[in-house]
Amino acid sequence: MTTNQEPDNRSINIGSGNYNESIQGDYIQGDFIQGSVIYVNKSLFQISDLLGRRTSDVAKPATQEEYKQRKVLLNKVKNYWIEGVLEKSLHTRVMISLGLEERLDAVEHLGIDELPDKSGQALPTGVGVTDVFNQMGEGRTLLILGEPGAGKTTTLLTLTKHLITRTEQDLSRPIPVVFNLSSWASKRQNIADWVVQELNRQYKVSKSLAKAWIKKQQLLLTLDGLDEVKSEYREDCVQALNEFMQKHGQTEIVVCSRIQDYNALSTRLQLQGAICVQSLTDEQIKQYLNSAGNQLEALRTLLEKDTALQELAKSPLTLSVMTLAYEGKLVEDLPQTNSIEEHRRHLFNTYIETMFSRKEAKQKYPKEQATRWLIWLAKRLSQTSQTMFLIEGLQPTCFQTKTQKILYRIGSFLIGGLLGGLIGALIGLLDQSKSFELSLLIGVPIGGLSLLLQMTEIKTVETLKLWSWQEARKLLINGLVVTLPLGLIVGLLNKGNLLLGVIYWLIAELILGLLGGLRGLEIQRKTSPNQGISNSGRNALIVGLIGGLIGLLIGQLSGKPNWVLLGLDFGLIFGLIFGGGKACIQHFTLRFILYTKGYIPSNYAHFLDYGTERIFLQKVGGGYIFVHRMLLEHFAQMASVSVQSTIAPIPQSIDRNNAPTKPDLTNVGNSASQPPTPVQNHLVCTNCGNNNPSNFKFCSKCGIPLIKPSI
């Protein structure tokens, strides 16, 4: 379309919306639209709501305290994901500009019946994800697709880095926050509640502040790992995202997913645009390897004739792993196979061996032991559809055998019995009668059973810090309705001793006032490994001291020596029950059982930091993630003699043409004790029985070094 008159303000009618846009400048030439960006004479003009919703100003921060809270969260996102993940990513070793293509067919556009058929068209060279996102205007939403290892997360975090810089310059802008959708499947609640949960769990933001930010639409959500949601819940997750966007139309969102998993869905995300990260071209791979020097000569030689390896190298992630694993190797050290799966397994096994052998990092753990712990961690994350591991997030559900569950329940019963026994002892002391032993006998089983019935989840108590007279006064007034009648009832039941009832009432009111006045920080500035349990232990001590001081004070005022002992018991009980002590005991009971079974080390944080040094893991605040999902999947599929008998198997994707050959044990007398029949020119793994190509040094299934037969 070409016009021959001076432009003026125009009215643009699209779909069911009527939007007034001011278009000024030179004559407009061009006749195609790409996504929500109109290309005119190779210049980008933004029409904010061409494919989206019209937005209004979101609520702005009103106080200096709100600005501080936003700054703290922004710094956490930057430290966790930009400095902690993006800048240390394996992708950064392959500094190649990734190509993008539009995929308008991947999303559902509300109010627009028909779009130009430009799906799959490559964007101009030099146009990156930031350019695409910026040209959408306010209220933008975007889907990022790609093959495994293509650089989707890197693209997402590159955009997040730009958004953080923009918000740092103006803190009134929405705060970009990174989440992984895999954790949504655990409870499958609405997205708003899930974001509140994750802000509290990962970033230590109070739930009240998180709810306020969502309501005022002051967050920009960058959501990775839609494909990591369990397949049976993935459709529901897409529906939940669509419902969230309908209710929070001004909240900007970016979603990431593997393209094959997304294409398998029948429901589409209702987003403004979609892009697909393109695989590396043969020319890009060749240029990169040529720039690496002679250390990768063997890899270059094999790539020229191995089509399976060529396909694998199109992923920036696997190309980066190749440069680390195959540096300085000879051609005969590399696998000679036409199977992509065999190549991939050999590549990651070699990478693991190389990282364990790095001279610049001190060998703190035996390789076999460290591998076993990483395998257990990967299997655990895979089974729960999680990507981030928090030590305080360990739950009783990680037990896989009846024996482990029984041991944990016995330990829990004993802990509950201790608490119940103390409560029973309190009853005996208060009554000052000979029923002390009876109270103890009643309290122990009741306490044990009560704790035994609460073993589904370990709940930490983390937010107990600042004092507020307003909160204390409010709880004291409301508490009168309960504490005063209870005090009078206790007095009447004790032979009409109203003085005892008044003392009970005063104790209850003092406890309510002191504990009610303790308020949590809206957002914690620092996070460290296992901080949830550390905070729970500290809060148990604080609450215990408060309870103990109250009891001692009442005992001194009443002149009754038993009340001094009662005060000490009060402190212990309140610290264990209300302050987080119970969570600490449950957590360390669980870890002790896992440690005795060989699944985890005694100092878990120390080992996870070691895994980070070896470039198996990355530290994200107080949590840890594998450097890439493909490495997590590889560890989860590895077999380990000491782990495989108690851990549920992970479904594997195995190339049928190169699947391990196993002996047929059906109707054969003693064949179960015989070793697997080796395939010609193959090596049989002595650990798992898998047949491997003769030039392999490590088993492609379990990663254990292969023993070549002596000639």
UniProtKB/TrEMBL annotation:
Keywords: Membrane, Transmembrane, Transmembrane helix. InterPro entries: NACHT_NTPase (IPR007111), P-loop_NTPase (IPR027417), Zinc_ribbon_dom (IPR026870). The keyword Transmembrane helix applies. The chain crosses the membrane at residues 406-430, 436-454, 475-493, 499-518, 539-557, 563-585. Residues 140-247 form the NACHT domain. It comes from the Bacteria. Residues 653-675 are annotated as: Disordered. This is NACHT domain-containing protein.
